Amino acid sequence: MKFNWRHIPLAVISVFALFPMFLLFMNAFKKKSEISKNPLGLPKHWSFDNFSKAWEQGNYDVAYLNTLIITCLTVLFVCIVCGLAAYGMTFLKTPGSGWFLGYLFVSMSMPLGFIPIFFMSIKLNLINTHMGVIIPSVGGAFAFNVFLLRAFMLGIPKDLLEAAKVDGSSTFKTFLAIILPLAKPAFIVVAIFTTLGSWNEIFLSNAILQADTMKTVSVAYLNFTSKYGTNWGLMAAGGVMTVIPMVVLFLTMTKKFVHGLQEGGVKF
Amino acid sequence: MTKKRFQLKNWAGWLLIVPGLAFHLYAVTVPAALGLYLPFTEWNGLDVPKFIGFDNFIEAFQDKIVGMALLNNVKWMLFWITVPIILAFFLAYLLTKVKKGQTAYQSIFFSTSIITVTVAGQIWFWLYNPFSGVNFYMDKVGLGFIEWPGLTIPSFSLVSVLIADMWRGFGGNVIWLLAAMSQNDKSLEEAARIDGAGRFRIIWNVILPQIRPTLVVVTMLTALGSFGAFEMVYVMTGGGPAHATETLSTYYYSLSTEGRRAGYGSAIALFQIFAALILIVFYGYLRKKKGWDV
Question: B89 — contact with chain A (CB < 8 Å)?
Fold first, then answer.
């Protein structure tokens, strides 16, 4: 079989993509003295000291808890409110939903109103609260996810809903019994991308979560790096702990991520 | 009777939309309205905003940092709509020609995007570090003369941040462009080849026109995003050294969080919205006048 030369440039770019992550993971297992001698290679003595130290000094227990609360609630709210809205706009002849869709589309291309949200949070005492991050995240993600779910729901045959209506199923029951199971792939895509976005979000979180006890891992890592900026082993271990849940999510759902993006690209 | 039930069903639709709409109002609509009013005020977030007319705009036009930041945003856009998109285009093109490993390559390219920006920034910060990063290693193997000055020298810092940002974000573009390319009509390409068209001619005249809608949308979204460039800059340099990497977002971010100047910050944020509007109008022009079916 002839070797396909196209694998060469593709492999080069793959190395460009993977090498920095490889460095992060390798350096997390090296002692400080080893990093300065051998910054780019495999560790000679695998050590887990950095992890336990970083876990304590970075307050990772608190940070993980905060991130879990914020991420879970954001995903839950996004799936519920966007799912219901997409359902209402796709299947019920809601008056004005065409205009509303147009409005949502326009709002999507506008940048996030960071300053108003930040100062509204000050006024409403939402600084240093989980809700201060969750509410704007859900609201900001609303338009895009409604479009995504709606595009998927348009593919569900109307006859099914008519049949359910004839059988006396209520609007809400139809949503739970018919739409939710059929649109499950779309909901999964929404859920994983919301999880990723929420876990990695720093723009709002960094401003709103100011107290150390409220910070998410992504934001806490900023603090961590400014405190222990010269200890690369510690930083690397902290970095690994910050990204590992998302790496695991990605590795277990690679296909979903790629297909989700492909669908999104084709739909728009 | 039937008519009444019909109407009832109608409004039930809005009941389903309202919960999401409430979130949307708080996060998008109200901030947008405030974003148009606040630039004309002086406000520290505590008492009532004080109306001061155009003072903030006058200050913004005299503020040198605003000019630098806007220029950086433009540079950011020019870089992002060229280098990563051309790279993504060719990677996607190559991927259409390989049989094995398409998904594997795509996931490798996209995997960088799942790394939290604070960590991604730290990795690159370390790579650019003159004492421990790549430069150190180059010294060791005798390549010390190609020293990458990285983040400490103003003229290099923006490019350095951009490379890190490209590393993190190029994978999504590859996936989108490949998705568009794999829907292309293969027979056109075949016909062109039989007619003796070269590889680049096929790319330019057969593949490019077919994926133009996707390419335009991707370029458009990239350009829009460029004017909101924030995360990588904030994490890696915080806008420094000497505001060399400052963008509109990082500038109004620090003005509002550290300086508590909602009014002046909002005036600068308006520049970003203004840039977005120009791009949207341009997009509409392409759609209508040029008949680009995007």
Answer: no
